[in-house]
Amino acid sequence: MGSRRIASEFRALDVWVPREDGEKLLYHLRSRLRARARVLDNGDVEIHCDDRVNRIVLHIETFPTKFHLRGEGYLTDRSAAEVLRSAVLRHRGSCVMIRYFQGFAVVYRYDTGRVEYIEKVPMHTFLRSTPTEVAEGTEVIFRARGRSEGGSLHGPAVALPGGGVSRKTMRERNSALRGASSEIVVVDPEDFRRIAQLREAIDRLLDARLRYAGDEKRVRAIDARLKRLVQKLLQLEG
After folding, report:
1. Distance from CA of residue 139 to its chain's centroid?
2. Phi-psi region at 158: left, alpha or beta (left = phi > 0; alpha = psi -120 to 50)
3. Domain of life, per the record (predicted)?
4. Which regions of the chain does DSSP assign to beta strands (E)?
5. How far is 67 from 91, CA to CA, in rounded Å?
6. Whole-angstrom distance, CA of residue 83 vs CA of residue 26
7. What gap in Å lies between CA 69 and CA 23, rounded to an integer?
8. CA angle 76, 79, 84 (to 5 degrees)
9. pTM reported for the whole predicted model
10. What is the phi/psi pair of residue 195, to 5°?
């Protein structure tokens, strides 16, 4: 049986979401966390919650069709944490997400909705409301190939065999193509749907790899499945 998650922390969260999705997200957070909302003079909104169990500060820039969310939070409420994580994945956002367990933490780095690395970090103590002291012995669970070691929160580590491949996002490639020629790049909407499904499946497998870390047979099976899904994702992204 896997360790029980105690809390999730979000750092440097930055994501653009369609206005309708943003309104639903804010409603969910306010209802789950009893968070307070404050409208600023320029029309932006700030969401605050600090009830000793959940803490969150979000700054929302409001536009006619989109919301720009930035902030950080420490959440014991799993539903609220999953809403933020899903927004980052679905809308190609960025953040560092730290899942706390008894005696260790797992650090995820998302960039434009992609998992860049996952590390398991042992801790001397677990302190809910103050910075956590990080011990030596960080274990790399996943790191996209080609990623520099400087991107890690906890120092250098070696990439796992069979890990993901660092590739430009579809948006970056299309932008480069538009800069090089006047051709219009058309992307099949079905590909976007399949890419989103593959990313979610990969993330679930990475979670499963953590749960069964002590079972070598299961980990090998998960790694094989993970490798196949990553290859499919790379084929779709070109």
Report:
1. 18
2. beta
3. Bacteria
4. 5-18, 36-39, 45-50, 55-62, 66-75, 94-101, 104-111, 114-122, 139-143
5. 11
6. 10
7. 11
8. 90
9. 0.65
10. -60, -45
pLDDT, tens digit, for every residue of 54-93? 999 999 999 999 999 999 999 999 999 999 999 998 999 9
CA distance 213 to 130: 28
Q: Which of 26, 20, 18 is nearest to 58 (CA)?
A: 26
Give the integer Cα–Cα distance in Å for 227 and 147.
17
Average pLDDT over residues 193-206: 80
Residue 238 and residue 235: Cα distance in Å, rounded? Answer: 5
CA dihedral 203, 206, 211, 212 (to 10 degrees): 140
Residue 194 or residue 75, greater confidence? 75
Higher pLDDT, 91 or 43: 91
Q: What is the pLDDT of residue 214?
A: 80
| pLDDT value for 238 | 52
Residue 132 is classified by DSSP as: P
